[in-house]
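Revision sheet: structure tokens.
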Amino acid sequence: MDELNTLEKIVETKEKEYLQSLFTLLRQESISTQNVGIAECAELLQNMMHEIGIHTRLIETDGHPVVYGEIITDPNAFTLLIYGHYDVQPPEPLHKWESPPFEPTIRDGKIFARGAGDNKGQLIAQLMAIKTYKEHFSKLPINLKLVFEGEEEKGSPNLASFVEAHQDLLKADLVYTSDGSSHSSGSPLMLLGVRGALAIEMKAYGADWDNHSGNAGNIVPNPSWKLIDVLKTMRNSDGKVLIKGFYDNIIAPSQQEKELLQKLPFDKDDIASKLGYTDLNMDGVTYYHKLTMEPTFNIGGITSGYGGDGIKTIIPSHATVKMDIRLVVDQDPGDIYEKIIHHVHKVDPSIEVNMLGSMLPSRTPANLKPVKVIAKAMERAYKKEPLIQPSLGGSLPDYVWTKILKTPSIIVPYANFDQRNHSPNENIRIDYFLNGIKCTCHVIHALCYEM
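Predicted:
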């Protein structure tokens, strides 16, 4: 471990070099939803990886290309697959940025730019770790495969088919992702899964056009009430979903997962403040269980009639509700969608139901050896025992690894909790970026000598 301590000191001396590499990638726009700069960014990333000594190529998909790289030291050695994404969210609203979103700027120990935390900063931390480890030890002790996609910010629509088509190429012993935010307490964090997601839209119709609410009141049906009536049959006042079979197939947390939830720090007042919801009233175990182990049934928006200033006395001709439903293992979004359709049409067959998107949930068992090995590596890198959370509250395409590639997957965020990803003034703290480089070095070393 003395050599790793030396390596950590080397990382600290190379800050300027690392930041230069990160700034190069941050300056290149790569907005996937608008197809702005994607091809240029993929080529730039390919060249950066090639310079490090990673055998790299672009693999086309039905959407944006995947940048694939590998270093095969020994076909019989442990193989780690690192996943990340080079695409970013649109930067708007531009007037809320304190500095231009594609001109990385350092303020107060943070790098501000679109993609700084999500995910270019974390991606470059992985690459700089590989570069530094190779230079210090002359070669890597394990095999590495790297998959950097260009469509994560639009829901990874082609990642599953890519993995399906390249299972032999991607075969690995473990998948390692650095994405998302560290814990609000500042402690290093390991995530063993994600919730899935189902997005739907329901539409109700009345007359062919808006009608005068006096002249047609009690005569023409109001589609807003039709939606409200069906929504009230789908969930009770305690939050329980009333759709038949909704809770089927949910795998209860193991005893070890329950113990991990109990260890997570919880400051009710701090979380309430960060949520902007001062009425938060639950203990830590309940909070984390609801956040990671239970499905949600959320209304994201309801649209109907007139919403401007003053009043417009109409009976609207149509109404729409958009919903997102977070799912836990082993709920299937397709199955849940069919059950929703059956329920809605049983109540009101005139209501139209459409799927807008979906993603399967994913979870890696907490008792696997790689979980323990990486936890120890993280503790050595951060000089602090990491928190282990069985699942993320949100959704990532983690299922492509655990369900298609059938490989355990671990997520270790390198960005600070307040990174403001997807928002103006997105950032990554420089010390978090450097610690991410150190952490990857420790993970590579541990997977060779402790697995």
